[in-house]
Amino acid sequence: MDHVKLFTDTSLACSKLITGRYSTSFTLGIRTLDEKLHLPVYAVYGFVRWADEIVDTFHDHDKAALLADFRRQTYEALETGLSFNPILHAFQHVVHRYGIDHEFIEAFLHSMALDLEDQNYHPGLYSEYIYGSAEVVGLMCLRIFCDGDAAMFERLREPARRLGSAFQKVNFLRDIRSDYEERGRVYFPGVVYQHFNDVTKSQIEADIKADFEAAYEGIVQLPRCAKLGVYLAYVYYLKLFYKIKKLPAARILGERVRVPDNTKILLLLGSYFRYRLSRI
User: Nearest Cα to 175, choosing from 256, 55, 259, 260?
Assistant: First the structure.
């Protein structure tokens, strides 16, 4: 028995377990990718989920020290090709297998560090944060989808960034109340939580709409092995965006908008039929 392979396979399985426990929507999206993409994408999700947990969850601990140690372990795993943290071992395996850029990893960890401090998100810092917290995650996945096709990656780089940006901004809008009340954060530049109103909301929504439109142009060019899964994530977030868009600002501050499970199933079926009919 190849025990090194067993260790790596078990580590990848841990990332799959984490994805299933933390995000049913993301798990559903991954399952609609080609099977060969499942474990690599689970590994990326496990890595970003663990870092996000450090900055968002463990308030009774020194989160800066935890994140610094996570960063150290990450780069040690990348350098040695081994980690006894199964999430980091799975991640480094995928980074090396698909040539994921270390710049993406550094940008992501930088954005996580920004969440440890009170930030005044001016437009430049806002763009920097979204790039590191969301866009590079899409770029990591794009490296997996392209599987060594550098020309395809460069062609789809910008739409992948715009898709990650759209997803993150929808999250910011949906979670504006919890981000402020639980973490003291307002990510949108120039927005004062107490003065959030319909005009401000409409301006944010126009920006998100432009991201969605640019992202779709890339989705239709994805390789077939990845297209359905990414399209499903796209239509799920678009549905969430439209639900938010219909509500006044006061409702957004009073409740967390979600897409019901039965609607997710309908979105999956609709996406599958469009895919089978080659309409995406």
Answer: 256
The rounded distance, in Å, linking the Cα atoms of 127 and 132 is 9
pTM: predicted TM-score of the whole model, two decimal places: 0.93
Using alpha carbons, list the distances in angstroms from residue 44 to 47, 93, 153, 262. Answer: 5, 10, 17, 27
Record the tokens describing residue 7, joined without a space. Answer: 């260790």
Instruction: Indicate the pLDDT class of residue 27, thresholds 50, 70 and 90.
Output: confident
What angle in degrees, to the nearest 10, is found between the helix axes of 224-246 and 150-174? 20
pLDDT at 277: 64
Report d(CA 56, CA 59) in Å as an integer.
8
Confirm if 77 and 92 have CB atoms less than 8 A apart: yes
CB 118 within 8 A of CB 184: yes
The token duo for 129 is 């944060």
The runs of H, that is alpha helices, within 32-122 are: 35-56, 63-80, 86-98, 102-114
